[in-house]
Amino acid sequence: MTKPFDTPPELASADLDLVICGFPGKSACHGGLGWSTVAMLRHGDRIALVDAGNFGMRKLILEQLGQRGLKPVQVTDLLLTHSHYDHSVNWTLFRDARIVVGAVELDWALHEPWGETPVPELYVRALSDWPTCEKVADGAEVFPGMTAHLAPGHTPGCLVFHWRTPTRDIIFTGDAAKNRAELVSRDTDMTYNAAISRASIDMIWERWRARPGTVVVPGHDLPMVLVDGKPQYLGKRKASIRAWFGDDMTTLTELDLAATGTG
Questions:
Q1: Which residues pair with 98 in a beta bridge?
Q2: pLDDT in tens, 47-93
Q3: Which ranges of 119-193 would DSSP assign to H, the alpha helix?
């Protein structure tokens, strides 16, 4: 099986590997896609994942880890940007890891009405009592060289992770800024308060501009770097669906969802 995303050299040199690269879209008639980014970081003998993907990604995540000679038990840290199912539900794959989640986020998620939101209620409840779960505050160091920063709007306790490496800074925005369109426009598709989301995106921009070469990794898009002050994609977008439109199981139609994209 091929890698669903080829990590650009700029990121590989910083010990970052994109296991799955998110997609900036949603279904027009079948609900949300939930195709989110899962990133892998290395520092010494520690291996971390930023976010854990959705149910549909489980097999793919295991396959991609296997291609890297890894099993879930070897992941030492799981860093969750927020509690929505497409970013958090697979924490059970990495139940032996130290699992980091924002204290504000977890408290909010535990009180969301069941069956009405993207919060996976039972998984969040189990995580709150899990022995390796670490609830962190704004400004906490969550991985060597990486700090967590509260970025509310998409959810009240969304975290942005800012990783400072010798070669470049890398900022994981989660769904505080899901894609390039949200970063550039400062408008968001899913927020409980547009002004609060805009302030969080402004914070991301301030960090992005602070060090030349800083990479932003959104929750649902290709990574980006600033060139002459404008976001430029790193890597190539891959996204497709195979469908059985024929009369037998061997006839498959592949729909390339990235064909008209700019990445």
A1: 77
A2: 999 999 999 999 999 999 999 999 999 999 999 999 999 999 999 99
A3: 121-128, 180-185
